[in-house]
Design a protein that fits this description.
Blueprint: E1 2-8, H1 15-26, E2 32-39, E3 42-48, H2 52-59, E4 66-72, E5 84-86, E6 89-94, H3 100-106, H4 118-129, H5 137-144, E7 150-155, E8 160-165, E9 171-175, E10 178-182, H6 185-190, E11 194-198, E12 203-206, E13 215-219, H7 234-239, H8 271-274, H9 285-293, E14 303-306, H10 311-322, E15 328-334, H11 340-353, E16 356-361, H12 364-380, H13 397-408, E17 413-415, H14 424-428, H15 446-460, H16 471-482, E18 489-491, H17 500-508, H18 529-540, H19 544-555, H20 560-570, H21 575-585, H22 589-598
Parallel strand pairs: 3-13, 14-15, 15-16, 17-18
Antiparallel strand pairs: 1-4, 1-10, 2-3, 2-4, 5-6, 6-7, 7-8, 8-12, 9-10, 9-11
Length: about 600
């Protein structure tokens, strides 16, 4: 997924406007980049594995009548980049085509590259070779492709540019006789465009025609690959330990004696059960219908749905579109630990529901470097209460929801957070007792955070490596999560009951993808969960699956026997996911797992 943009002018374009479009496109990803521009009598394509702000400075396409390009967030491709050139067709594409492997035999052709976008070129070329019209290309592509397709397609010999989208993540605007396009409306507003229109149907524009072939150049500047190669080892996998434990468990739920601050009464019932207050008891839906009425718009999007591509946010999006009948824009924050599976599900849902997706991508290399430094510090002094620092980088999710509100002018945000995902033990291992009165999955408040940070500071002093360049990123992210005031902010599952079976059955209708290495559908698009759950199970004998299933027991959703059977499978180490995680942050799998396996057990 990436940000795409372009300017088609009758003369030379405005340098400042192009630079603004480029900077805004970089918000959606900066891992690699590409430009296509008309140079005298031919089109040039320049691609790089570094930021587009650097590439445009090197290429300097400011004297061209036509410039378009993309700033990319890592997706399926390993080495190939955009614009993709094949059969004298050039394509820049925002989205992921989730069925591209099925399309190739259908059109009786073979891919030459590793990137999913290439199939768009092939479909377009085949359509034209069979006598099809240019304005029929979009229909030919969208009939075959599943997943988000928002793209600009260049036909140099015909002198045509086709713009089309199946989810609305593409806009056009006009300024001083020029036509601009971008993945979002905000960049076009910022440069002063008028008549800004969301592209749903195909738009065909005239551009300079030429018989000369496109000249393509590729520039390398990054030492490593942000997408780890899929290399698995049986000897590595055997290092992962998974032993059944004979721990005392609550006789009502399944929490074990190693749960922080747990106690059992004479009947063996734990204090978590005794103090539990039902959380999955929604208020009448009519209340939410009444709340959102004031936000509805006759034109354009009217709400923001924070969107990870996970099970609950996907079902929440389904409810917003199908039940509330709202017109949402989804917002995704990618900090480098969203897996390709998660991104593919984002693409599936947004395409099927025709929903625009705005991405804010952080500096992924930097974020992963932060994780590596903190994990190295943790390995020198393992502490279960400090595991949460490995996921601190994702808390800027809460910061950028405000960015999206400002850029779109939309204030209402509807969150699909599972009310049963309460994990008291993560702070409990740091020394913080459970707050049984807390009504939210995420706790707020200055005193709570100050106490939490004080206890964490004490733990950090045991390993000075924590005091590294990631510290400000960690603290500022937690500030935005816990201290900033949330406005126009509602939880969908405050009004709809969270029902796991119904949710999974509904998502199956969208061909929602599940992980091949586990039966659970929870957190499967999260690159961190398998690793930290392995630590919790190895050292404490339980994971967040045990706490989640215990909450389901208390809600009356499943029996205790069902929960025990489920966690036995769900706590099984997920080698492919753990391998991906450690490769992504640049640490040796065997060295890390051996340290984890040597940590003294709590049982």
């Amino acid at each position: 997924m990436c940000g795409i943009f372009g300017i088609v002018s009758s003369s030379t374009l405005l340098r400042d406007d192009l630079n603004r479009l480029i900077r805004r496109a970089e918000q959606r990803g900066r891992d690699s980049s590409g430009l296509l521009f008309f140079q005298g009598d031919h089109y040039e394509v320049s691609r790089a594995d570094y930021a587009i702000t650097r590439l445009v400075h090197e290429v300097s396409p400011y004297h061209s009548q036509v410039v378009m390009g993309h700033s990319r967030l890592i997706t399926n491709g390993l080495t190939d980049n955009q614009p993709v050139v094949r059969d004298n067709v050039a394509v820049i594409h925002n989205g992921i085509i989730v069925n591209h492997e099925e399309i190739w035999p259908h059109i009786q052709q073979s891919p030459a590259l590793q990137i999913d976008t290439e199939v768009i070129n092939a479909i377009a070329a085949q359509h034209l070779s069979r006598g099809g019209e240019v304005d029929g290309i979009a229909e030919a592509v969208l009939q075959l492709c599943r997943g988000v397709v928002a793209c600009a397609l260049v036909l140099p010999k015909l002198g045509k540019l086709c713009l089309f989208s199946n989810n609305g993540s593409l806009y056009t605007g006009h300024k001083a006789g020029c036509i601009y396009f971008a993945s979002e409306s905000f960049p076009l507003e910022e440069v002063g465009c008028d008549t800004i229109v969301q592209v749903r149907d195909s738009v065909v524009l005239d551009i300079p025609a030429t018989e000369k072939p496109m000249q393509v150049s590729d520039r390398a500047g990054r030492a490593g690959n942000l997408i780890p190669p899929l290399t698995f080892s049986a000897s590595e996998e055997r290092l992962l330990e998974y032993h059944p434990h004979n721990l005392q468990r609550c006789t009502r739920c399944i929490l074990p004696s190693t749960m922080p601050f747990i106690s059992f009464d004479s009947q063996g019932v734990c204090n978590y059960c005794r103090h539990y207050k039902p959380r999955n008891r929604p208020r009448p839906k009519e209340e939410l219908f009444e709340v959102v009425e004031q936000y509805r718009r006759t034109e354009g999007n009217d709400c923001i749905v924070p969107f990870s591509g996970g099970r609950d946010s996907c079902y929440g999006l389904h409810l917003v579109v199908k039940e509330l009948k709202m017109k949402p824009v989804t917002y995704t924050y990618d900090w480098g630990m969203v897996t390709d599976l998660g991104r593919r599900n984002i693409s599936r849902m947004c395409a099927e529901l025709g929903v625009e997706n705005i991405i804010v991508a952080d500096d992924i290399a930097k974020k992963r470097r932060n994780i590596r430094m903190n994990l190295q510090a943790w390995l020198k002094s393992p502490h279960l209460g400090m595991i949460s620092i490995l996921t601190a980088g994702d808390k800027h999710f809460f910061r950028h929801i405000e960015t999206i509100k400002q850029q779109t002018g939309i204030s209402l945000n509807l969150w699909g957070i599972n009310p049963l995902e309460v994990t008291h033990f993560k702070a409990g291992f740091l020394g913080i007792p459970p707050n049984f009165e807390e009504k939210r999955v995420y706790s707020h408040g200055a005193m709570k955070q100050l106490r939490y940070q004080y206890l964490r500071l004490k733990a950090m002093l045991q390993s000075p490596g924590y005091f590294n360049s990631s510290l400000w990123d960690t603290l500022s992210g937690e500030y935005y999560r816990s201290f900033t005031k949330k406005t126009d902010y509602y939880h969908i599952f405050d009004y709809w009951r969270w029902d796991e079976r119904l949710i999974e059955d509904t998502l199956d209708q969208y061909d929602w993808e599940r992980a091949p290495d586990t039966q659970t559908t929870w957190r499967i698009g999260d690159g961190t969960a398998a690793f930290y759950n392995y630590i919790y199970y190895t050292v404490a004998g339980f994971t967040e699956h045990d706490t989640f299933r215990s909450n389901q027991i208390r809600e009356g959703d499943i029996s205790r026997d069902e929960a025990l059977a489920l966690v036995q499978e769900e706590n099984t180490p997920r080698y492919p996911n753990i391998k991906w995680y450690l490769d992504a942050v640049g640490l040796d799998f065997q060295e890390v797992i051996k340290v984890v396996n040597r940590i003294p057990r709590l049982y």
